[in-house]
Every structure is written in structure tokens, then in C-alpha cells.
Amino acid sequence: MAQETAPPELSADVTARLDRLPVTRHHRSLVITIGMGLFFDMYEIFMSGVLGPVLSDRFELSATATSAVLASAFIGMFLGVVTMGRLADRYGRRRFLIASVALYTVFSAVGALSLNAPMLIAARFLAGLGIGPQLPLADAYLSDLLPARARGRYTALAYTIAFFGVPTVGLLAHWLVRLSPLGMAGWRWLFLIGALGGVAALLRYRRLVESPRWLASVGRTAEAERIVTDLEAAAPTRAAPPAATARTDAPAAMARTDASAAAARTAPPAVAARTAASSVTPATAAARRMPRVYRRRAAMMGVFHLLQSVGFYGFGTMAPLVLDAKGFSIVHSLLFSALTYFGYPLGSLISLPIIERFERKHLIVVAALAMAAFGVAFGQATNEIAIVVSGVGYTAVSNVFSNAYHVYQAEIFPTELRATATSWTYAMSRVSTAAMPFALVPVLHAFGAARLFAAVAAVMTVIALEIGVLGPTANGRSAEAEAEAEAGAGTGAGAKGAAAHP
Predict the structure, then answer these.
(1) How far apart are CA 190 and CA 104, in angstroms?
(2) Contact of 101 with 198, CB cutoff 8 Å
(3) How confident is the model at residue 330, as a pLDDT?
């Protein structure tokens, strides 16, 4: 059956109605659900780092083999991100959010049963196929569902829930590494706990609704309006859509579609051409040609992600190895890592009152420079207090940085490009994160922690300059409205560049 295509005004109406809404109980429920899925996603991501020294000791791994174990999940994440992001723009956000959780749940359980290093590497790679897409898909989904004026605060709330997974895995590792409950090694229990958490997340993910913005963008207007109507019904004071655009059933939506088609037949050539262009689904049009402004943004965010993982994931992955290199035992290094990891949820909590108050690109710049400063202090720290204080400072500001860019990267692209653009650019972070153990572990062994974190500080300074100079402002703005303004103002080549957007 052929899929109907939404006229531009239908998609715009769904977007406007979503942005007019107050935050409802449905919004809060989906934020909690996404936060729970991301909790176990963060658990899985940081588990590789905290278990690096443990697995190296248990399997008697060489430095190269240790790097391979750490990198395997991130290679899988890269492939999962680039594949599922584009599919989510074509076939929907919900089904691929569920598929990604199912993947990491199954293969985390397989990791718990690993008999040797090659089996563990394979299990982590396959789990990575599901771990990687969660973050950019969650960004796209939350950006689609949340009203523009509350998008930053509630996305940050989802990530605050998520980042409690980081100290959780750190404390569990510190506690379980010395034990063998029910005769099974403690590190295996870490994998099993992650798999059980994935099952719990899946049960909640099944209740998620599809993104109405995405549904409208591919012509499934009746479904989109049904979801928007439910959200409006849950609002404390329901504001009905204007009479001229009020629609609650499929026949009305189809009538509107027929009217648009008739208007296109009698419209002047320029208007008719634009209406005819909408007969191609936005996802297809986006795949053919991304307008110049979004190509520039995608390139900027690609470079950003290639570098940001060095600072963000580099700390989480390398901190236990750095402390081990400083002479602390595995047990003590895991304890100090767990304590510093409390900075992640702390930073998320700090971001909640400021993420809507300050322009997000400025938060990214300031937080990147603060990470550089705390990183240098951590690299030079030699006593327990200095290690914990500088580590907590680093992880706290890194989550102001993280929450700001997760909102930012989704809201600078329109609906039909959002999952593809955020996933493809975010995939660059998986390339650099996969390469990071092979680059940073030798630097640590050859030059020490101080020079390692001096290099990290230099990278974060470059990021601050890039976003500060090239990044657009975004707070509370609708990428769809921006695309409309560009299309309306553009002429000649400029208008052609924006024509792919409804």
C-alpha cells in the first residue's frame, strides 16, 4: 500500500501543536523511560573502562590485547550508529530504540559467559551494535517529542537519570571484583547485571509512542495527530488547535491532503513546484540532498565528535588505567574511579537550572575549557584527595558539556534529517573512541599521566574554539521553523538548497 505524503502545512501544524504544549505527564513518563534505557547504556559504555585492569589481569592480556578488548565495543558502536540512525529516519524512532536495547541486552549476557579473550571481544563488539545508537536516537526522539522551550531541561533530566549508571558500575566493580557470588567471578556478574537491566528497560520501551513529528514528515498524519491529541488531552489546560487546522481523524486529514493537491493544480508555477516537491518523502529528499546550511553543520559536528570523545570517554576509559599506572592497586583504583564517577550525575544536576538559561553553544565552550583545566590537575595529582577532587571536577563539568551538546546536536537539524545527522556525526566519536586505547595507552606508558592529560586539554581547547566560532545559536528555536524561513527568504541557488524541507 502506497504511503500518503503529508503536505507541508500538515507537518508544520503538528510541529506547532507540539511546541505549544506544556510539559504533560506523558512527556515526563517518556523522559523517565528514555533515562532508564540510557542508564544501562551508560553502564555498558563505562563498564569497559572500569574492567580494563581487571580483565587484563584475569586473562593475562598484553597491552595490545587490552586495547582490543576496550576498543571492540566502540567499533561495534560505530557500525550500529551509522546503520540505525539512517534507518530511524526512514522507518521510525521507536522500533530502533527498542532494537538497540535488545542487542546490547543479549550480547552483554553472552559476555558474562565468555571463556577467553576472543569470545569476550566478539561479545563486546556485538553488544556495541546496540549500545552505540541509543544516545543519538534518544536525542532525536526527545527533540521530536518535547516542546522547544522545555527541550533542554527535560533532555538534561533524562541524562541525569542515565549518568547515575556510571558511578553504579564503578561501585559494583569495586565491590564485585574481589568476590565470586554463587561461584561466578565478580566481573561476570557486572555483565549479567547489565543484561538484566536491559530487560527491564525493554519492558518500559514497549510503551513508547512513535514520534509524531516523524510520522507527519513521512505522511502518516492520522497517527501523528492521534498522538498529539492524546498529549493535548493530558495537558492541565488544553489549548485546542485553531479551528482552521483542527483535525482529529483520518478522513479529515485525507480531505486536507486532497485540498492541497487541488491547490497545487491551480497554483502559480513556483508554488506548484514546491507542493509537488512534497510528494517525495522528506527522508528520501534528505538522503538525496542535504541543504548547504545543514551540510556545514554536519561537518562541524563531525569534527566536534571526532575530538570530544578524547575528553569525555577518554577520561572514563583511561582513569582506572591511569591510577593503576600511578601505583594504586586494582581495588583502590576502582574505588577512586567510582568516587570520581559521581561527578557525572552531579554535573547533570548542575546543568538542569542553567541549560535553558544560557545559550547552549556557550555552555559547550565554557565546559570544554573547564575540562581542560581539571584534566591537567588530574594528570598531575599524586595523593588521594587531589585525585578525587580533580576527578569529580572533571566529570561534573564534562556532563554540563555532554548535556548541552546532546540537546544542541539534535535541535540544529530538522525532523527529517535529525536521526541521520546526529547519528552519522556522533559515529565519528565511536571511530576516535575505538582508536583511543591504541593511541592513549602507549602515551600513558611512554610519557606518564601528566603529559597524557596535557594532550587531552589541548584537544578540548580546539573543541571550544570550533564551536565558539562556527556553531549556530539554538536555544528554544525550531529547526523546522528555521528551514521554513530559509526556504521563504531564499532565491535562486539558495532557494534550491532549502527546497528539500517542508
Answers:
(1) 13
(2) yes
(3) 61
**Grid-cell match 564551536, residue found:** 467
What is the pLDDT at residue 106?
A: 95
* Full 3-state SS string of 100-169: HHHHHHHHHHHHHCCCCHHHHHHHHHHHHHHHHHHHHHHHHHHHHHCCHHHHHHHHHHHHHHHHCHHHHH
Greatest alpha-carbon span in the chain = 79
pLDDT, one tens digit per residue, over 88-126 is 888 889 999 999 999 999 999 999 998 888 898 899 999
Q: Give 3-state DSSP helix, strand, coil % of the chain, rounded to 5.
A: 80, 0, 20
- In this predicted model, what pLDDT tens digit does every residue of 117-139 receive, in sequence order? 889 889 999 999 999 899 889 98
Q: How many CB atoms lie within 10 A of CB 489?
A: 10
Nearest-angstrom CA–CA distance, 211 and 230: 13
Answer yes or no: is 158 within a domain: yes
Looking at the structure of the chain, the number of domains it has is 1
Contact yes or no for 485/319 (Cβ under 8 A): no
Would 229 be classed as within a structural domain?
no
Which tops the pLDDT comparison, 431 or 347? 347
C-alpha cell at 253: 486529514
Which candidate, 12, 484, 4, places its Cα nearest to that of 255? 4
**Which CATH number belongs to the domain containing residue 197 in this structure?**
1.20.1250.20
Which of the 8 DSSP states describes residue 24? -
Does residue 90 lie within any of the structural domains?
yes
The vertex-463 CA angle with 462 and 468, nearest 5°, equals: 100
Indicate if the pLDDT at residue 280 is higher than 50.
no
- In angstroms, the CA 280 to CA 218 distance is 9
Domain residue limits at 141: 8-213+289-480
What's the one-letter identity of residue 348? S
Distance of CA 95 to the CA centre of its chain: 16
pLDDT digits (tens, 9 = 90+) for 154-163: 998 999 999 8
Query: Is residue 381 included in any domain, yes or no?
Result: yes
Phi/psi-derived region of residue 92, left when phi > 0, alpha when psi is between -120 and 50, beta in every other case = left
Tell me what the mean pLDDT of segment 226-230 comes to.
89
**62 burial type by CB count under 10 A (0-12 exposed, 13-18 middle, 19+ buried):** exposed
Q: What's the whole-model pTM score?
A: 0.71
CA distance 5 to 2: 9
Helix (H, G, I), strand (E, B) or coil at 22: coil
Q: Are 239 and 20 in contact (CB under 8 A)?
A: yes
